[in-house]
Amino acid sequence: MQIPKQAVLLRIFIGEDDRYQYQPLHEAIVLKAREMHLAGATVLRGAVGFGASSRLHTSKILRLSEDLPLIIEIVDSEEIVNGFLPVLNDMMSNASGLVTMEKMQVLQYGRAAADPA
């Protein structure tokens, strides 16, 4: 699979406790992205954060409810990511989150080409 040098980065901010059809939302998003043949997705777990509610989410041991922040990053062509957005919108209908998209340049995807020399 190849992705164009000029691509977009879709970044999705959600909480660890968010769900979609009885499974963790972050897992559902990654699996759907894979099913739809997007170039790749990564889930990053934050140690502390807050969102629209201003409620602090932290990994401190004395907290009863962690609900740590998660960031899902997906990179692909703008056309393919735009095709994924309606699906993502449906999946996030019961979650409070933030979705951003920015243009970016892909320097390498997969293994580097072998040196012909």
Automatic annotation (TrEMBL):
Q: Pfam families, per this entry?
A: DUF190
- Which InterPro entries does the UniProt record give? N-reg_PII-like_a/b (IPR011322), N-reg_PII/ATP_PRibTrfase_C (IPR015867), UPF0166 (IPR003793)
Task: Say which family it is in.
Answer: Belongs to the UPF0166 family.
Official protein name in the record:
PII-like signaling protein
Write down the species: Rhodopseudomonas rhenobacensis
